[in-house]
């Protein structure tokens, strides 16, 4: 196979890690950004985004020669917008070239054709390459400058959302030392993405064997939560429930023993607001800085770096976690004071859990009345409720595949906490209460460690 020689200005398809190939252009790197040692690579600016990265030469392909191939294997909306932007740009550039061909000098001679210009980032027409739905922003700016601010109607809470650049892999990792406690379904994917994006990560897990894979990927091992917190600038935790979250901080050799002034602790577990308030108080009492950041998603979304992060607490910690949140998620929201993210997360999971139980109920009712469950799913996926979630969960049920993507026991815990939160606010939650009973029935049928779609079995036993 002939070697393709690429140079600055060439249009290419660039692939980084597990992310899909994306249209880009080889450009000169910033003066302060050094080329990775021992690697043959080019600095690529991706179209339709603010993303850029060093890409190995073997992960680059000429744009025109592989255009049809790439379009066949990538179908996303953002991908299509990026391709459309490149094509629009090329048409405009070609038009300008043709116009220049028709102009002669004073003696009637045509001026020689100029080579097609591939715009650099400083060129005025670069906006033609960008997704029109995205506002201009430098990926090198602090997250506070890239945030889109939306005020709620009540005016009590500011919400900031920032799109992750993880989809194209162009993240400048923080130089802060990162600690991560808890390598379960969600934590494992998060840590993997932090490492892949160049973060320095120290890990700890109650079952130490789970750390081995990440040590092989470049992580460091912490012997206790206290040791991790003392060694690292920012320590994340992601565990199963409020008791586990408290024990991790307050227990023997817990995080609190490693907290010193300026140390940051980020609680990513889905827990109740009261637990968050307690943890925030004990961390800050030692001079530490606290942020809660539960995540909406599943094991697959965690592995793909496409989680939604809900953060609240110390805003400066949120900004310090910018590159981490970009590595693990597609979007992050800052919801104000500590406790707000826990409340929002419980509401979201209450809706999801109730919806899943209703879908299971519909499938079993279809079967009980002699209707095809597959036809029910086909119709559902053509209507207003169509979604990846509905399709995947229904397919799991029809195939009898309940491998956990989000544990049933955890969604039941979230429903219970949401109902309790409603009681404290004197707000009725009858739908969630009914769904909670179905999940309790499923747990009694030994479905706790299966996926939430296993709630289906509560209707057939």
From TrEMBL:
Species this protein is from: Oreochromis aureus (Israeli tilapia)
Signal peptide region: none
Pfam families (alphabetical): NAD_binding_11, NAD_binding_2, PWWP
Limits of the PWWP domain: 8-66
Region spans: Disordered: 92-142
MF terms in GO: DNA binding; NAD binding; NADP binding; nucleosome binding
Keywords: Chromosome, Nucleus
Protein name from the UniProt record: Cytokine-like nuclear factor N-PAC
Family of this protein: Belongs to the HIBADH-related family. NP60 subfamily.
């Amino acid at each position: 196979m002939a070697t393709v020689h690429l140079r600055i200005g060439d249009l290419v398809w660039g692939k980084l890690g597990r992310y899909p190939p994306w249209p880009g252009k080889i450009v000169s790197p910033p003066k302060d950004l050094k080329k990775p040692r021992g690697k043959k690579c080019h600095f690529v600016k991706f179209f339709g985004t603010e993303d850029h990265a060093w890409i190995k030469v073997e992960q680059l392909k000429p744009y025109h020669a592989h255009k049809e191939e790439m379009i066949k294997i990538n179908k996303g909306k953002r991908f299509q917008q990026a391709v459309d932007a490149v094509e629009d740009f090329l048409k405009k550039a070609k038009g300008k070239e043709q116009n220049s061909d028709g102009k002669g000098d004073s003696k009637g001679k045509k001026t020689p054709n100029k080579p097609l210009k591939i715009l650099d980032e400083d060129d005025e027409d670069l906006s033609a390459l960008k997704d029109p739905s995205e506002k201009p922003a430098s990926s090198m700016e602090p997250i506070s400058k890239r945030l889109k601010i939306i005020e709620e109607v009540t005016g009590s809470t500011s919400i900031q959302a920032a799109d992750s650049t993880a989809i194209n892999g162009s993240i400048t990792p923080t130089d802060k030392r990162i600690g991560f406690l808890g390598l379960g379904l969600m934590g494992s994917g998060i840590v993997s993405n932090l490492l892949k994006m160049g973060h320095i990560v120290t890990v700890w897990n109650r079952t130490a064997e789970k750390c081995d894979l990440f040590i092989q990927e470049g992580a460091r091992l912490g012997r206790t939560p206290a040791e991790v917190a003392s060694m690292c600038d920012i320590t994340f935790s992601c565990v199963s429930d409020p008791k586990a979250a408290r024990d991790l901080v307050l227990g023997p050799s817990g995080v609190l023993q490693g907290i010193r002034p300026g140390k940051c602790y980020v609680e990513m577990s889905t827990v109740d607001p009261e637990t968050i308030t307690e943890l925030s108080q004990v961390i800050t009492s030692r001079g530490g800085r606290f942020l809660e950041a539960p995540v909406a998603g599943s094991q697959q979304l965690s592995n793909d770096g496409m989680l939604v992060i809900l953060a609240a607490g110390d805003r400066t910690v949120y900004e310090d976690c910018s590159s981490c949140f970009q590595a693990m998620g597609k979007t992050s929201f800052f919801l104000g004071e500590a406790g707000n993210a826990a409340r929002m997360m419980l509401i979201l999971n209450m809706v999801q859990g109730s919806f899943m139980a209703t879908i299971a109920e519909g499938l079993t009712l279809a079967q009980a009345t002699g209707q095809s469950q597959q036809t029910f799913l086909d119709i559902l996926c053509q209507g207003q409720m169509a979604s990846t979630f509905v399709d995947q969960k229904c397919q799991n049920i029809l195939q009898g595949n309940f491998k956990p993507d989000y544990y049933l026991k955890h969604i039941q815990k979230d429903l219970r906490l949401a109902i309790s939160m409603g009681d404290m606010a004197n707000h009725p939650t009858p739908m969630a209460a009914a769904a909670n009973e179905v999940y309790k029935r499923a747990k009694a049928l030994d479905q706790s460690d299966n996926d939430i779609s296993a709630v289906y079995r509560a209707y057939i036993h």
